[in-house]
Amino acid sequence: MAAQNRRPPRLPTDDEITQAREASRQLARLLPSGGDDAATPVPALRLVTDDNQHEMIAIPPGALRLLVDMLTQLGQGRAVTLLPQNAELTTQEVADYLNVSRPYVVKLIEDEKLPARKVGTRRRVAFEHLLRYDEQQRVQSRAALDELARIDQELGL
């Protein structure tokens, strides 16, 4: 899937938020309570369309969990984007994800802190590399905050 073919996420309407909240609550009851998704069967869902057509659909537990997560986010009024793990993002999409400027992302790439590849003159970042970088940054931030808290305790602040 090429990054430029994805449409930007759209904020849900008030009606969609209400529908997503209710659907999330209903589907969450079907999630397996154990940790092993493969061992716990999920009942097939029956979808009914506006014209009363019935359709039975079996959804794998992982997909059902993803659907519940997406509906939960929509129910909170957030836009949702679904990306395959092997997706590649533009530097602007990476900047939007990290909430930083595009030139900052370019500097991260040039400093080899964030892996990327060139497609012509454009840079592309694998989504999995972005997730790994983001998690590393979160770990470093947590460690720095823990250190500051320790110093505050030592100084009695």
From TrEMBL:
Alphabetized GO MF terms: DNA binding
A Pfam family that the UniProt record links to this protein: HTH_17
Domain named Helix-turn-helix: residues: 89-137
Highest taxon listed in the record's lineage: Bacteria
InterPro entries attached to this UniProt entry: HTH_17, SinI_DNA-bd
Protein name: Excisionase
Species name: Piscinibacter sakaiensis (Ideonella sakaiensis)
